[in-house]
Amino acid sequence: MRWLERYFLPLTVFTLLTVSVVAGVSMPAFYDWTGADQSRPAPAIPRIGIGLIGGTACFALLLAWVPIEQRRRWSHFSGGQTSLRWLLVMTTLMAVACIPIPSLQFVFSYSVLAFAIVRTAYVAIKQRYLGCLLLAMAACIWGPFLWAFPDAQMLTLFAACPSLMELMCASALSGQHSDHIAFVGIYVTSAKLLFGTWLIQWGPRIGLVYCVVVLNISLAGSFVLHALMRM
Prior knowledge:
Layout: H1 2-34, H2 45-63, H3 83-97, H4 102-126, H5 131-142, H6 154-160, H7 164-174, H8 182-200, H9 204-230
Helix pairs in contact: 1-5, 1-9, 2-9, 3-4, 4-8, 5-8, 5-9, 7-8, 8-9
């Protein structure tokens, strides 16, 4: 089982990268294959969704029994080292969320996203053994939307669309159109990066599970976005 311990993590990361890219490129073809149209939902989607949720649960359970060679490198991480940064980020987010001026909301939300990207890159450079997992996390967040990036509104797609499902929930709860609160999606995307970066430092197993969960959310958001753009 020595080969499994040595190669499981890089092979899993490579698989996540491949699935994210392939799903992002082939989403329009997948949408057509499901038989979805504007008048009715795709009949296969509920079964596919249940399969993804079940597969993720099985993956998380089996992962606890898989030996991973790099587990020792995570043993020195202390969550307390990042507590002050988290407190600063969360305080900033809560303060900005109270600002009623939409233009300022977008300025601050993009600033927070830039901070999240820089923070993730800093951790990847400082702790290089985390680089593969952080790259997989970024691919799982944005990869399923590759088909949409040639759109003219690429910046908005990059920032908000990875959190389209969460944005739609916020829109339903607040009663506002999603276009008016798009900054909420940008905040959620930033939170995904920051939380994932922090979580991955605790260990490869919890990092892999997080990547798979984020990938499922992005796949659902990519499908919904394609359906909306078909209308």
